[in-house]
Amino acid sequence: APAALAWGGHAVVAVGALAIAARFWWRGPAADEDLRAVATFGAMMLVTPYVLIYDQVLLGMAVAFLARAAQRGGGWLPGEAPLAVAACLLPGLALLAKAFFLGPLAWIILLALVMRRDAARAAR
Fold first, then answer.
1. pTM for this one?
2. What is the pLDDT of residues 109-121, one digit of tens each?
């Protein structure tokens, strides 16, 4: 893609990730701490344009926080665990297939799971 398009797309994703993380921080103690951690990790990894495969080890920690939120919240939501596992596998697939857009997609998936779990928590 042309550089302007790539930077524009990156800016949209970065601002969206920051907005999600900020939402959890502005809510203060009312926000789920585990979901706040995952949202913060996701924002950190999506704001920088230079995330390499060895940076993706943070996915494991983010999924651990998501698992703890699931444990505290009554279990995994339907489809949540397989998507979390898929997110962990995407960077390796990106490396093998030389499809490097898959690395950031892992973080987008985790942010979507965080938003979904937060919505389910609020509905209870």
1. 0.91
2. 999 999 999 999 8
